[in-house]
């Protein structure tokens, strides 16, 4: 039973994702699709539109066989750590291949670029840092360094496209981890991440979220089963409320300003910028715009804000990122997916957890009662639980149980009775 892995966010699942899913199965000659999906907080430092269970249910309805959560802090990290977390998770789950979308669509070109970057990584970092000290903004600094080191036009084009960059991070993670998973790529179709217009029935997730925020229909841009679930979730007030997010963030910033320096990604001087911005900004956009600087991209600021909201300290993030995830969380599975997971059970070296009522005993049995590994696993667990509880406060309707990881059932496709 061959399986292809996907590293995803599905925020929300749309027609472009459906194309990627079907094309990945075809390229890998696979029967099963396994998606590692970010939880409540995403790679660019944003809370998801909908909670992880609803997004997993949507993907399951659209045809994905296995949905596993990419845990924090990997899910809310820059490309190298995000990619590493996803690749390690897919390797642990036992997939045969991983397929990612790219602007290039040419694996040979991407592998060549990955090799060039690996050989110049130290030089790239040193020259970028020197440019930042001269006052050059980070994106421009990195682009100039790349242009100097790799003047060939095709290389520059490859290194300037966001999905190519993430693809290069996947290839690097595969190489550094020694994973046996085979890389595949398919050309990305439809508009870019920041584009708001649709093209031939495909819109970016950003464009779809913008349409939803304006009360517009998106039924032509998402698979029919997804549209049904999306409408239901929004009618119940389960979507993110950015005003609540802004107010909780601001409260956390001004509550204990002297402690901000302990949080992940809060470098020297950023604490003062955060406090000043929280005292003046009127909304989330104003807060982010007031904190941005030449050396601080919007995405970097957003990730730092998530760390502040969730109370992720620098030492905690470094401890977790220094090793693979201690366990994985199964969110949704089809019958075919269950058969695949059963066939790979003996290969797994870390727990795949679906019932959190027994999580402590599972972790203690796997790692030992007083081990460092158990301590690390419990830190990962604490962060996951905290993220779920806080995310529940960010939804428009936040009533109900907050410790949902303990109570949410595994999403399964309905069983069809045989005639």
Characterise the protein shown here:
This protein has 419 residues and is of the alpha/beta class. Helix 3 (79-93) packs across helix 7, helix 4 (107-133) crosses helix 7 (162-177) and helix 10 (242-255) crosses helix 13. The two termini are 25 Å apart. Strands 1, 2, 3, 4, 5, 6, 7 and 8 form an 8-stranded mixed sheet that branches. The protein has helices at residues 15-28, 52-62, 79-93, 107-133, 138-149, 153-159, 162-177, 205-213, 224-235, 242-255, 270-280, 284-291, 298-310, 314-321, 335-343, 359-367, 372-394, and strands at residues 3-8, 32-38, 66-70, 97-102, 182-187, 328-333, 352-353, 411-412. The model has no long low-confidence stretch (mean pLDDT 91). The longest helix has 27 residues, at 107-133. The protein folds into 3 domains: 3-103 and 165-240 and 324-406, Rossmann fold (3-Layer(aba) Sandwich), CATH 3.40.50; 107-160, no CATH class; 242-319, no CATH class.
Compact overview of the structure:
With 419 residues, the chain is α/β, with parallel strands linked by helices.
CATH superfamily of the largest domain: HUPs
| SS element count, helices | 17
Which spans of ≥5 residues are poorly predicted at pLDDT below 50? none
CATH topology title of the largest domain: Rossmann fold
What is the number of beta strands?
Answer: 8
In the residues, how many domains can be counted? 3
Q: What would CATH call the class of the largest domain?
A: Alpha Beta
Mean pLDDT: 91
